[in-house]
Automatic annotation (TrEMBL):
It comes from Halorussus aquaticus. It is an enzyme of class 2 (transferase). It catalyses: ATP + protein L-histidine = ADP + protein N-phospho-L-histidine. GO terms for biological process: phosphorelay signal transduction system. This is histidine kinase.
Amino acid sequence: MGYLARGIERVGGRRIIFALGGLYIVIAASFPITLAVGERTVNDVFIISLLVGASGLALSYGGYRLPETDVRPDLYHVVAGWCLRAIEVMVGVLLFIALVTNMSDPLANFLILPALASVAGLGMGYHDGQAQTRAVDAEEYSRELERYQTIVETVNDGIYVVNGDGHFTMVNEAYAEMLGYDREELLGSHTSFVAEDAETLADEIRRDLVADDSETGTYEATLRTASGEQIEAEATMALLPTRDSDGHDRVAVVRDVTERNERERQLERRNEQLDNFASLLAHELRNPVNIGQIYSQQLPQEKANPQAVEYVTEAFDRIEDMIEVMLLVARGREAVSECSTVQLADAARQAWDEADTSEATLEVTTDRTIEVDDTYIRHLFRNLFENAVEHGGASVTITVGDLPTGFYVADDGCGIEPDKQKVVFETGYTSSASEGGMGLGLTFVQEMADVYGWDCSVTESTDGGAQFQFENVTSTHV
């Protein structure tokens, strides 16, 4: 870049154009003064003023409209440079003519010709600026395209683009490797080359993304690899703008989900097996339990040990409750029968009478009424009460109280360490395995909260013990 170009860029190309236009307009307005000191006619002065002023107006208007053209702002100095170069050339020509010829009115020629030349330079500058703008834009587009190509090739997921007819127009290396093909084998081929039911899938995509005007959609399809194997793939698709308004090119990000789907199917099979096992076990347990309950009620109270009969009856009832609890853990929401209106205070006191609470103390401050299965809520309280006695000591005090959107069960025992407050709900977790603990009590508590949509958590109580909280519990009003 020369000194002139650097100077123009420093001042500002648009300012230079405005300055030239303003200069010529001032000259045109003041030139009639020369009638008093020269030999020009009124007609000559008018023509000179008109041409110089028109040039000034053209320059000013061109500078004003410059931002509306496709010339980049950082290339305005190119347009101004052409204006000044045209003036330089024309001044040089006039000086040459003045030296070698006789000019009748060199001042008039000096004013007219450079003014007209600057307008020509403006036009040439526009074209040059536009050309350089296109060159710079093309270079920037090339760099941007290269960046996107790098991104597309770097990601681990497969990416491809298909045109409106369903033919591949771009695939990345990850997609080619996923299917075991070379990219050249896929480019230009139809999607049916690798996808089962490609036409049906294409119709669904057009219906979702075109007809319903959705931005993206996720679809699953079975793909054939080069080795003849089949894989399950999940693709997130979006439409791309095309030159043809009737075309609908689309881009897809594809992921092999064969292993994920197989794990889900295995989990479903295991859940089904667990459900079947729980149902079978519940059925087999209920028969002897029901028989035991019937015969225990028929024992003659005056001959048998009344306390023993009571213990046997209570044991059978407890087993019946455990069957219901086991079904809840195994089946989740499907095991929930019709709910009833339950006073939390009554349920807590009934659970307290059923629990082995030794010398512990129960304080009930709640008056909340909720819709829940009576057996489940009593078993929840019983688990929490026995857990508090087991870890807090025989003389622990347990409180059942209200929260803004639920209730809590708190004790004044030793509490639960912060790093264990989340794992206590996990199946099998127990701190009393040596005493026969199976780690299912708090699992039931968490499972029940999930079934009813409650938020279950454990924190430290105000007395330093453990506090189990149940929030987002729907209350009823009686």
